[in-house]
Amino acid sequence: MKRDRDEAEEGNEERNKRKMEIVWQTPAHPAQKQDYVFHNGKRHVRPYYFEFVSHVNKRWEGKTIVDLFAQEFRGRSRDYYVSAVKCGRIQVDGENIPVSYIVKRCQKISHFLHRHEPPVMAWDVEVLQNEPDVLTVCKPASVPVHPCGQYRKNTVLGILQAEYGLAPLYPIHRLDRLVSGLLIMAKNPAKADSFRQHIEAGLVQKQYVAKVVGVFLDAEVGISNGDTTLKGKAACTKFTRISTNGIHSIVLCEPVTGRTHQIRVHLQCTGHPIANDMLYLSDDVVNRSTLGTTADRAAALSGGSPETSCESHKEEYKYCSEDFSIDPMCTHCPNLAPNGYDGHEEGLWLHCVRYTGPEWVYECPYPDWASLT
């Protein structure tokens, strides 16, 4: 009986191998226009096959291939990794290996899988200026600048390549995924290096606008990391109120230095955090935080775009075989978005409007939320 059962299992594995003979994508495959699916105000990416590559480090050395993945990459079950090794979706140095295989230092490990990217808002990446050596765009909130984490095609660089054929591009500064506004990109390494030299020499001035809670002071305010929980390098931001309606204020933000979340932290320190920033909202708006009003929900409650309304989240994507093929081993199919995607953090009221350097200025229009009338 046991031998019959083993033979049946081996037969099933062979059939699965035949079903899964797939041409795998690599990072060299660029995004294309047909890769995107638009639904309910969101830009989705059709799932695709992708090779994730890593190399065995000291901590991994001596582990079995299954133990390594089960312990280090816990997003999937141990049973999945066993099956992935058996059918060749996990390889070492380009070769199929048994589940008992023990990895050695510096070996190349490939994990071939059906990749589902999180959706972003369906707003266009608007080209502002297209010069011989420089491209500037208005980056939408929710879209990362370049491939990172779960994002590859749903990025500013991916979208520009797919929709405008613009590549290669070299971003000369960064904007957080939830921040919108001016993004400057060089079209060649020499121009990118010139911009970086200006930035490193302290010759570049940056301006953002933010929509904050309450009536901001009608005077220039300066905050440094000595006034906040920021540690390490010096960080300073100047703030000037542009307008207020008694409930919110539009504030011009001029970071003298650049640190992660610097503007958000410094606005919190003034007692006027960004009005839809769940991470840094202060005590006077704790009820909103308790109710779970994240960036897009707060925008909807304050008369934002219909695409960001709470109602829009009630309509789930219905799988369509024309959009993508179900993968029998994928832990995310049949959904377009990966499992566990929340979808409720789609934009902060923080927008980059101007970068000024030696003999150059680039600007971006103000967003709709910056008008309090």
Counting H and I runs of at least 4 residues, what is the number of helices?
A: 8
Distance between the termini: 79 Å
* Approximate shape: elongated
Instruction: Tell me the number of strands.
Output: 16
Radius of gyration over C-alpha positions, nearest whole angstrom: 24 Å
Mean pLDDT: 84
What is the structural class? alpha+beta
Order of helices and strands: HEEEHHEEEEEHEEHEEEEHHHEE
Helical proportion, percent range:
10-25%
Q: What are the low-pLDDT stretches, counting only 5+ consecutive residues below 50? A: 13-21, 284-314
Q: β content, as a range?
A: 15-25%
Query: How would you characterize the largest beta sheet?
Result: 10 strands, mixed
The oligomeric state of the chains shown is single chain
Tell me what you see in this structure.
Helices cover 21% and strands 24% of the residues. The chain is α+β, with helices and mostly antiparallel strands and 373 residues long. The strands form three sheets. Strands 7, 8, 9, 10, 11, 12, 13, 14, 15 and 16 form a ten-stranded mixed sheet that branches. Helix 2 runs antiparallel to helix 3 (78-86). The chain is elongated and about 70 Å long.
